[in-house]
Amino acid sequence: MKKFRSLTIWTVVLNFFILIGAGHGLASIGLIEVWGIFNKFEFNAEYFSFSLTSSYEDSFGPVAILSLTGQIFLLLPLFLKKDSAIIWTRFAGLVFLWAGFYYLTHNIFNNSDSGLSQLSFYTGIPFLMVSIRLAYKTVRRDKAKTSIDLKNDRKSGPVANEKLKSSTIRHT
Fold first, then answer.
1. Is residue 22 exposed (0-12), middle (13-18) or buried (19+ Cβ within 10 Å)?
2. Beta partners for residue 22, in sequence order
3. 91 neighbors 138 (Cβ within 8 angstroms)
4. pTM score, two decimals?
5. Distance from C-alpha of 136 to C-alpha of 7, rounded to nearest angstrom
6. Residue 157 CA, distance from chain mean position
7. pLDDT the model gives residue 172
8. For residues 57 and 71, which has the higher predicted lDDT (pLDDT)?
9. For 109-126, what is each residue's pLDDT tens digit?
C-alpha cells in the first residue's frame, strides 16, 4: 500500500504544479483551484466554457474544477478500507485529472494561443507518466488479487463447498 500512497501523492502534486500561461506570467493549476475555491468558482460566463473549441484562457475554469474533483477522488482511497471502492475512486480521480489535462492542452496544435498549450503539455508530462504508472499498478494489483482469489476458490473445490453447506444446514 505504501507504493500506492506515494504514487497517489506524486500524481496529485504533479497535477497541482502543471504550469499555465495566465496574463503576463505563469501560474500553476493549483493556484487557479485555490482562487476558484475562495471565489466559489464564480467565473465570468464570458471566460468560462466547457466547449472544446474555446480558447486556452477560457478553459481555466473547467480545468480547475476537473482537476480539483480528480484530486479529491484520488486522495479519498487513502482513507477507504474496501478494495473495490479504492479501485473505483482511484480510477474516477485519474479520469477527472486526465480530462482536465486534455481540456487544458486540447489546443496544442493551434497556433492562436502562442504556445501556451504546449507549455502546459510539456510541464504536464511528469504528471502523465506518474498517473499512467499509478493506473497500471492498480490494474496489475487488481488482476493479481483476482487471480489469487480464483486460485483459492479452485483449491477449496466442490468438496470443501459441500462441507461448508452441510455444516450450515440445521438438523431439526
1. middle
2. 25
3. yes
4. 0.77
5. 11
6. 39
7. 46
8. 71
9. 876 677 888 889 999 999
